[in-house]
Amino acid sequence: MCGIVGYIGTQQAAPLLTLGLSKLEYRGYDSAGIAVADAAGEASMRRAVGKLRNLQHSLDSAPLAGRAGIGHTRWATHGAPSEINSHPHRDATGTVFVVHNGIIENYAEIRVELEAQGVEFRSQTDTEVLPNLIKRAYDECQNLPRAIRSALQGVRGAYALAVMHSAVPDTVVAVRQTSPLVIGLGEGENFCASDALAILSETRRIIFLDNGEMAFLRAEGVEVFDLESGARRQKEVQQLDWSADSANKGDFPHFMLKEVHEQPAVMERLLHHYADEEKGCIAFPHIGLSREELRGVRRIFIQACGTSWHAGLVGKLLIERLGLISVDVDTSSEFRYRNVAPHTGGAILDSDTLVIAISQSGETADTLAGVQEAKERGLKVISVVNMPASSIVRASDGVIYTHAGPEVSVASTKAYIGQIGALYLLSLYLGEIHGLIDRARMKRRLEKFAEVPRLMREILADDSGIQRAAQRFWLAEHAFFIGRGYGQPSALEGALKLKEISYIHAEGYAAGELKHGPIALIDEKMPVVAIATQGVTYEKILSNMQEVRARGGKLIAVAGEDDEEVGKYADFVLRVPELTESFTPFVVALPMQLLAYHIAVLRDYDVDMPRNLAKSVTVE
Ligand code: F6R
Description:
The structure is a single chain. By secondary structure, this protein is of the alpha/beta class. The protein folds into three domains: 3-246, Glutamine Phosphoribosylpyrophosphate, subunit 1, domain 1; 249-455, Rossmann fold (3-Layer(aba) Sandwich), CATH 3.40.50.10490; 462-602, Glucose-6-phosphate isomerase like protein, domain 1 (Rossmann fold). The protein has 18 helices and 27 strands. Helix 7 packs antiparallel against helix 14. The chain is globular and about 80 Å long. Fructose -6-phosphate binds next to helix 9 and helix 16.
């Protein structure tokens, strides 16, 4: 939840730091602070409890001058939200300043050791041991890189840091140990941040730090070192194609709504990056496997978590239909314990089996562990990921980026569309490689894909029907979502969206399963959302709806715009364009997302930051 920003260059640091922190406000925090140093190493610090505007007011009335600085938004863990516990923290002599994300697990024993040496602590935080450790180490060796490496040797935990030392005023140091940290490269100035969004308005040239790396930022350049060995590391500079608007809500009241509306553009970007509709061909520049290797694939395992797992379930149907390859889908937390192939210590034995990992963040611990497990078993891994250069990308043989742009709202929407869009194109690609899809068929499919964004925009242009349904059901305590075929993963995803942001207990089911147990729960208080778009199982889902209706359940159907039959059984019909079955997940997702959104707004919940959830789940 905490956020870090650092700057060194030719401009005044304080305004850039507070601007950067404002882009991280969406993560939630309870205090904020900055430390700024001038060229002589004269450093000063300002912190304030509550919203960033409190810090801003204080800086407006008494500005801090200096062209280097570090800033932080804190979400209290060790010690109450108070000014004294806010970051930055400094050593007892006021020489070293540190901002910190994450947790120092052994801070208590370090603190006791430092106190025994006479160090006085001001705060209750785990962080405050760090500036004191760095100060002590620097005093011994008079060399900042060495001091930081030596100070951190005995520190356990997952953290990211930005550090300033008054004796080395031309440098800001950034350290990544598990918690994310990026470097932004400017002209005569450089930045660091816990999230690229914070510095996107200043630069899009980004270095993603790996675990165990530290970067020395100076106005004129950046050097990256291995924290353990001290060896210099060459890092790739990525040019992010994200818009600077990604960090703002624009005219939308919530990021989630903004991101729902960005979905047509995500589809367009996928086509732009991977397909040539005119020629009827697809290419994935970073897929990491040759056409020959992909031709040999006979079995695919998809593994992912949450919404990404739902995208995987759609991907299974697509790949089995268009690529004719058999696909298993697991949640990553289960996949990694399956015995899918013998352990080979990484030697490739099983070249006809492919693993696909799907993740928006690219940092989800379970999915990453699944990738590592697959590699250990000698399997090739392609990841379908939104965040560039993330851990899952680096652990995989190749990547298909979903090009959804940064997703701020915790509830995933546009990343999901990016995932199923990428999987759609992948299934066509595999179909073509396996000789099942010729140029003409490919061209037709791509042309249809290209039409989807316009149809999505039509749904988004008028969501009054969805709002009416939300008004009717916002007080419900439970809900079912049912679907068949492509409607089944869509139902699971609809239920997840509703439960995570509105806190209504919602379950998604394969509609045919209803009568094998869950139907016992149907009564007049149970709304059931039925995905009843046209397809091979359409008649069957109508029967399932009648089963619900006969037991007094209230039905909201998601159905094609020309479907007159469905209205006979449903209390509400949310219309979507009539499409070939394999395209329905793209349009069905929108009313599901908007229904959840409007219900959460009516219930007055924090839509973008639902309780107990984090955007990136880096624990197993
Ligand atoms: C739900 C949601 C989560 C994520 C899941 C996996 O809206 O966002 O269920 O899908 O935590 O995260 P990623 O895709 O980052 O691996």
